[in-house]
Design brief:
With 204 residues, the chain is of the alpha/beta class. The protein has helices at residues 41-48, 92-102, 111-117, 133-144, 163-178, 190-193, and strands spanning 2-13, 16-27, 30-34, 56-63, 66-68, 77-80, 151-155, 182-186, 198-201. It has a single domain (2-201), classed as P-loop containing nucleotide triphosphate hydrolases (Rossmann fold, 3-Layer(aba) Sandwich), CATH 3.40.50. 28% of the residues lie in helices and 28% in strands. The strands form two sheets. It has a five-stranded parallel beta sheet, with helices on both faces. A four-stranded antiparallel beta sheet has the order 2-1-4-5, with helices on one face. Helix 5 (163-178) links the parallel strand 7 (151-155) and strand 8. It is globular and about 45 Å long. It starts with a strand and ends with a strand. The mean pLDDT is 95.
């Protein structure tokens, strides 16, 4: 069982409030985070992932009946976002292997399994820096689930993907929940939000 409890979360930058007194409760579900550009979707994901601090409020994660703060969930966290990149000087396969080696103490997926699942066999031995934006996105999504995370945060996961790629997003989010995890998906695209069980709307 994986759950998220957010109470009265507030984040603001100097002179610019992002969101105020935001509360969320979700367990083993796909949670959409909606809002226009600048509404705070990415900021919310980064707060609950422990990547940036909030100004006030509480964030509590439950993973397999154990409680964790946002800054303690890195072993359980898979994260993919437009502002998070892999190493351009490594091939797609080398990037995945590098991440797998970093998480050698965890139950990671095999690289051939990911190459097949995310349909990257045609370019797995190409330098990441030479790939198209859509190919890069597939590799980044594969990297986000390599260690079978219980918490999967996806910021605009369908960026630069074709229709087959959107099916991959559906399948990976479905599988995450089947495996006992929780998904947070930030987007302003209706077809992505339709994948979610509940939707939080930011920005009014």
């Amino acid at each position: 069982m994986t759950a998220l409890t957010v109470k009265n979360l507030t984040k603001q930058y100097p002179g610019k409030p992002v969101f105020r007194d935001l509360s969320v409760q979700a367990e083993n579900r796909k949670v959409g985070v909606a809002g226009s550009n600048g509404a705070g979707k990415s900021t919310f994901l980064r707060c609950i992932s422990g990547l940036i601090p909030s100004n006030s409020g509480t964030i509590e994660w439950t993973v397999d009946q154990n409680k964790y703060s946002a800054t303690e969930i890195q072993p359980f966290l898979g994260f993919s976002a437009p502002y998070v990149e892999l190493y351009e000087e490594l091939t797609a396969a080398e990037n995945l292997q590098f991440i797998r080696d970093l998480r050698s103490d965890q139950d990671c997926a095999e690289i051939p399994e990911l190459i097949k699942r995310f349909e990257i066999s045609e370019f797995f031995d190409s330098l990441y820096g030479s790939l198209s934006s859509g190919q890069r996105q597939r590799v980044k999504l594969a990297a986000s689930v390599l260690h079978r995370p219980k918490i999967l945060c996806l910021d605009e996961p369908g960026t630069n993907l074709d229709e087959d790629g959107h099916h991959l997003v559906r399948n990976m989010t479905d599988q995450a929940v089947v495996d006992g995890g929780i998904v947070l998906l930030a987007s302003n695209q209706p077809h992505e939000l339709e994948l979610c069980d509940i939707v939080i709307r930011l920005g009014g």
